[in-house]
């Protein structure tokens, strides 16, 4: 179009950021941090390949990663391509569904050498994601950002590559499943058992109920301005409890508890039988 | 000066050598959060098929540090592919060494379903690993428990006395009595510690949502858990059947043994009376033992390993059910309390 009008126009391709987004799994962050901690002496940053898949809604799901050794000196970047391919093959043997979706680098934002590496990954996969993880906490927080590269061209001539930031979903449902208590601290002496975990959850729940309770009290006494939305949430929550008469409710709970107690009894008796059988078995004298 | 230091040096080297002979017992397994995540990812993605992988790390005194791991592809029953598996393992180790990952195998991990892991294969794998690595552990993860908000990770090793016995392959009742070994002593569970580098800790603190309720809490407070219990009881019943088959084997063995002994006794009686009459007639007595006689052929005692493992497995199921039900009971008991609290807040709102 630009050529037909005999004018040179600086073309900005359509923005990806509205359609493209990425989701990072906690494992990737862990992996990158571990690689950074184990980086060679003289290296300033580590880079590596991101594996994952593109979800049906266009979100790039980054699920795995591995570091790739590289060398950077005065504007030149040497990437161990053999290493990259070997490890890719190995990873695909385990999980063929995970393909290259981009690459990562530690550090804040995009640096000079990044464009070259990005070029390499563009040949592996169309439109790769570039993830940067600021392991140095340079602006006081661990910034994690994702970019895609957009080619700027002047007329037909490619001018430069522009890195455009794309929204990144950092919600970590998997990490929540395991528990931040285990993943956050530098040392956990013991994995919480079923009951301890339950206790923590129960405490949290009770704290939440207390919060609601306090809020309702405050509203009733006129300390806080009532909020209809919150009120509706509370009434929905309360309404979701089945309305049962106390005796019926007690019966329901008690029946269930009794069932479980029966099971408990059964399994205990099996255990006793087992230890008894073991004694008899080893103590059995040859007649 | 030099004269005095040399002997002490020599002694200290000797002392070091002497102390190295007896390695301190393994007290804890320290896993990096990264490894936990990796194991969980691998086990969960390929669940319900069971998967394995290698653990890499360092052996530091009484603590075994697991600092990295990599998954194995699902093995197929084919020799060619098996060779490829070994190649894969070497390749992976080589690659990881290049990025400065600890290049020392300390064991392996595997997934299990509903706590079912005590198999002869596991013990065989253990013995294989044990040949090369003095101290190895097996980390077992149960993806089926994750939906209930439980992190079901276990670190196991075989007990020393069991390994001795397994090497001599002698699982007769007599030997077991001698060693005083029961099914409880096959596996030793080692407490797990989780460690994270300061960097990861910082990132996680940064990234943690400030929502008061996490996915874990939702999962834990689920009340419908009967499927899990049902499966457990089902497995328990299956095990019970297996155990009774094993018991029948033993009964058969003992019946045969007693029959044989009766036959031997009868034969001896006959021989003795014969000898008496020969003595009376002034002839040489016949020997009181006859190895060629089929009556004296020893009957092979069946191995008790299988029944041990089954018993162990059953005890495991029982423990699981017990722990689970107690947990559930607490939930159910707390339910009326919550109900009451919420009702109360409802009435407050109504006022």
TrEMBL record, chain A:
<feature type="domain" description="MPN">
    <location>
        <begin position="22"/>
        <end position="153"/>
    </location>
</feature>
<comment type="subunit">
    <text>Component of the eukaryotic translation initiation factor 3 (eIF-3) complex.</text>
</comment>
<comment type="similarity">
    <text>Belongs to the eIF-3 subunit F family.</text>
</comment>
<dbReference type="GO" id="GO:0031369">
    <property type="term" value="F:translation initiation factor binding"/>
</dbReference>
<keyword id="KW-0648">Protein biosynthesis</keyword>
<dbReference type="InterPro" id="IPR000555">
    <property type="entry name" value="JAMM/MPN+_dom"/>
</dbReference>
<dbReference type="InterPro" id="IPR024969">
    <property type="entry name" value="EIF3F/CSN6-like_C"/>
</dbReference>
<dbReference type="InterPro" id="IPR027531">
    <property type="entry name" value="eIF3f"/>
</dbReference>
<dbReference type="GO" id="GO:0008237">
    <property type="term" value="F:metallopeptidase activity"/>
</dbReference>
<dbReference type="InterPro" id="IPR037518">
    <property type="entry name" value="MPN"/>
</dbReference>
<dbReference type="Pfam" id="PF13012">
    <property type="entry name" value="MitMem_reg"/>
</dbReference>
<dbReference type="GO" id="GO:0016282">
    <property type="term" value="C:eukaryotic 43S preinitiation complex"/>
</dbReference>
<keyword id="KW-0396">Initiation factor</keyword>
<keyword id="KW-0963">Cytoplasm</keyword>
<dbReference type="GO" id="GO:0033290">
    <property type="term" value="C:eukaryotic 48S preinitiation complex"/>
</dbReference>
<protein>
    <recommendedName>
        <fullName>Eukaryotic translation initiation factor 3 subunit F</fullName>
    </recommendedName>
</protein>
<dbReference type="GO" id="GO:0001732">
    <property type="term" value="P:formation of cytoplasmic translation initiation complex"/>
</dbReference>
<comment type="function">
    <text>Component of the eukaryotic translation initiation factor 3 (eIF-3) complex, which is involved in protein synthesis of a specialized repertoire of mRNAs and, together with other initiation factors, stimulates binding of mRNA and methionyl-tRNAi to the 40S ribosome. The eIF-3 complex specifically targets and initiates translation of a subset of mRNAs involved in cell proliferation.</text>
</comment>
<dbReference type="GO" id="GO:0071541">
    <property type="term" value="C:eukaryotic translation initiation factor 3 complex, eIF3m"/>
</dbReference>
<dbReference type="GO" id="GO:0003743">
    <property type="term" value="F:translation initiation factor activity"/>
</dbReference>
<dbReference type="Pfam" id="PF01398">
    <property type="entry name" value="JAB"/>
</dbReference>
From TrEMBL, chain B:
<dbReference type="GO" id="GO:0016282">
    <property type="term" value="C:eukaryotic 43S preinitiation complex"/>
</dbReference>
<dbReference type="InterPro" id="IPR027524">
    <property type="entry name" value="eIF3h"/>
</dbReference>
<dbReference type="GO" id="GO:0001732">
    <property type="term" value="P:formation of cytoplasmic translation initiation complex"/>
</dbReference>
<dbReference type="InterPro" id="IPR037518">
    <property type="entry name" value="MPN"/>
</dbReference>
<feature type="region of interest" description="Disordered">
    <location>
        <begin position="273"/>
        <end position="295"/>
    </location>
</feature>
<feature type="compositionally biased region" description="Basic and acidic residues">
    <location>
        <begin position="273"/>
        <end position="282"/>
    </location>
</feature>
<dbReference type="GO" id="GO:0003743">
    <property type="term" value="F:translation initiation factor activity"/>
</dbReference>
<dbReference type="GO" id="GO:0005852">
    <property type="term" value="C:eukaryotic translation initiation factor 3 complex"/>
</dbReference>
<comment type="subunit">
    <text>Component of the eukaryotic translation initiation factor 3 (eIF-3) complex.</text>
</comment>
<dbReference type="InterPro" id="IPR045810">
    <property type="entry name" value="eIF3h_C"/>
</dbReference>
<keyword id="KW-0396">Initiation factor</keyword>
<keyword id="KW-0648">Protein biosynthesis</keyword>
<dbReference type="GO" id="GO:0033290">
    <property type="term" value="C:eukaryotic 48S preinitiation complex"/>
</dbReference>
<protein>
    <recommendedName>
        <fullName>Eukaryotic translation initiation factor 3 subunit H</fullName>
    </recommendedName>
</protein>
<keyword id="KW-0963">Cytoplasm</keyword>
<dbReference type="Pfam" id="PF19445">
    <property type="entry name" value="eIF3h_C"/>
</dbReference>
<dbReference type="Pfam" id="PF01398">
    <property type="entry name" value="JAB"/>
</dbReference>
<dbReference type="InterPro" id="IPR000555">
    <property type="entry name" value="JAMM/MPN+_dom"/>
</dbReference>
<dbReference type="GO" id="GO:0008237">
    <property type="term" value="F:metallopeptidase activity"/>
</dbReference>
<dbReference type="InterPro" id="IPR050242">
    <property type="entry name" value="JAMM_MPN+_peptidase_M67A"/>
</dbReference>
<feature type="domain" description="MPN">
    <location>
        <begin position="29"/>
        <end position="162"/>
    </location>
</feature>
<comment type="similarity">
    <text>Belongs to the eIF-3 subunit H family.</text>
</comment>
């Amino acid at each position: 179009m630009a050529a037909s009008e005999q004018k040179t126009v600086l073309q900005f391709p359509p923005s990806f950021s509205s359609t493209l987004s990425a989701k990072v799994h906690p494992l990737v962050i862990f992996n990158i941090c571990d690689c950074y901690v184990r980086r060679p002496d003289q290296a300033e940053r580590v880079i590596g390949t991101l594996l994952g898949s593109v979800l049906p809604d266009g979100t790039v799901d980054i699920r795995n990663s591995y570091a790739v050794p590289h060398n950077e000196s005065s504007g030149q970047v040497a990437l161990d391509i053999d290493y990259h391919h070997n490890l890719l093959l190995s990873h695909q043997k385990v999980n063929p569904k995970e393909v290259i979706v981009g690459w990562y680098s530690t550090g804040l934002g995009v640096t000079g050498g990044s464009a070259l590496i990005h070029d390499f990954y563009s040949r592996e996969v169309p439109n790769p994601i570039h993830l940067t993880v600021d392991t140095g906490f340079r602006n006081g927080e661990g910034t994690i950002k994702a970019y895609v590269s957009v080619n700027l061209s002047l007329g037909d001539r490619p001018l430069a590559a522009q890195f455009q930031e794309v929204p990144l979903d950092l919600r970590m449902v998997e990490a929540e499943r395991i528990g931040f208590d285990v993943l956050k601290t530098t040392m956990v002496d013991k994995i919480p058992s079923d009951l301890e975990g339950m206790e923590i959850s129960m405490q949290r729940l009770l704290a939440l109920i207390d919060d609601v309770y306090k809020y309702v009290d405050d509203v009733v006494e006129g300390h806080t301005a009532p909020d209809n939305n919150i009120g509706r949430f509370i009434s929905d929550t309360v309404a979701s409890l089945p309305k049962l008469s106390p005796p019926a409710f007690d019966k329901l709970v008690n029946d269930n508890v009794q069932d479980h107690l029966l099971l408990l009894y059964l399994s205990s008796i099996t255990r006793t039988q087992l230890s008894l059988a073991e004694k008899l078995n080893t103590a059995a004298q040859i007649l | 000066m030099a004269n005095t230091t040399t002997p002490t040096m020599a002694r200290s080297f000797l002392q070091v050598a002497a102390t190295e002979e007896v390695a301190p017992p393994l007290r804890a397994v320290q896993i990096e959060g990264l490894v936990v995540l990796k194991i969980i990812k691998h086990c969960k993605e390929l669940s319900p098929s069971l998967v394995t992988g290698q653990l890499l790390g360092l052996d530091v005194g009484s603590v075994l540090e697991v600092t990295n791991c990599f998954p194995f592809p699902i093995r197929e029953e084919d020799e060619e592919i098996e060779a490829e598996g070994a190649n894969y393992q070497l390749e992976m180790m080589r690659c990881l060494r290049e990025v400065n990952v600890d290049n020392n195998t300390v064991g392996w991990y595997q997934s299990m379903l509903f706590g079912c892991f005590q198999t002869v294969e596991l013990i065989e794998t253990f013995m294989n690993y044990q040949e090369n690595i003095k101290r190895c552990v097996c980390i077992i993860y149960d993806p089926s428990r994750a939906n209930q908000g439980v992190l079901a990770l276990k670190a196991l090793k075989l007990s020393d006395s069991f390994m001795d016995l397994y090497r001599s392959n002698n699982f007769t009742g007599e030997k077991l009595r001698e060693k005083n070994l029961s099914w409880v002593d096959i596996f030793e569970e080692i407490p797990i510690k989780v460690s994270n580098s300061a960097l990861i800790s910082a990132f996680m603190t940064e990234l943690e949502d400030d929502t008061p309720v996490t996915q874990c809490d939702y999962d834990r407070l689920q009340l419908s858990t009967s499927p899990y219990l049902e499966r457990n009881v089902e497995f328990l019943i299956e095990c019970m059947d297996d155990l009774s088959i094993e018991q029948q084997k033993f009964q058969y063995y003992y019946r045969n043994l007693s029959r044989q002994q009766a036959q031997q006794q009868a034969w001896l009686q006959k021989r003795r009376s014969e000898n008496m009459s020969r003595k009376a007639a002034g002839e040489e007595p016949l020997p009181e033992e006859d190895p060629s006689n089929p009556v004296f052929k020893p009957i092979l005692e069946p191995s008790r390993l299988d029944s041990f493992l089954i018993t162990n497995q059953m005890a495991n199921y029982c423990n699981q059910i017990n722990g689970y039900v107690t947990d559930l009971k607490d939930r159910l008991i707390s339910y009326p309390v919550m109900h009451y609290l919420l009702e109360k807040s409802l009435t407050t709102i109504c006022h």
